[in-house]
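Glutaminyl-peptide cyclotransferase, Nocardia abscessus. Tokens?
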Amino acid sequence: MERNRRSLAVGVLVGLLVMSGCGGAEDTTPRMNIEVVGTRPHDPKAFTQGLEIDGEVLYEGTGLSGASSVRASRLATGEELARTELPAPYFGEGITVAGATLWQLTWHDGVAIARDPATLAERGRASYDGEGWGLCARDGRLIMSDGTDRLTFRDPVTFAPTGSVELTSHNGARLNELECAADGSVYANDWPTDTILRIDPGSGAVLASADAAGLLPATARAGTDALNGIAQLPGTDRFLITGKNWPTMFEVRFVPA
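Tokens:
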């Protein structure tokens, strides 16, 4: 069976606390609050696997076999600029823009697809071992998650692995969608929870965690799935976050608890 469906107020502070990585030991990870500063509509049919902003373009990758896609839209207006479907049995996963290439992962197929960021047309493929979950790009390298507590570094042109790091805490976390933030850290959704982890990709240290459980009201949860999708708004301290089949995308800040 396909993965288990990876199961406002402006200015509201949502959540404080989240799960510890290792059973039994006290979790001393610093906490972040999530401050909602705005919302925008999100396609409730989008089984979100990756969210990416490049300039004025918002990219979204969706999953499910036979229903996976990559979409590009104007960040300011939501106007769709391009869209492409991924044929079954491929199950689309994380996406990122690295230079002149948009990379798209697949879940079980061991295939990364290189696309033209403007047209989303396929330009090539690369293979990898294991599962593909999340992907982001920063400082001349790709950072990839595979559903474990490990991050793998890859060449942005060839997709060849160049190293890896494991989390030094929160062992057993299942790192999913990733965002390489402007400050050099990586924000990661910990599937299937509502936890967002902020990670130092150099050491694997978890710098902070946030609980997004209160973002989507219980009255809007019917038919939705896990939190998944995070992208920093360029030149700001704000992020867009959403989830699989969520009707809303939230613009937020992460602030110290």
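The first strand starts at residue 13 and ends at 14.
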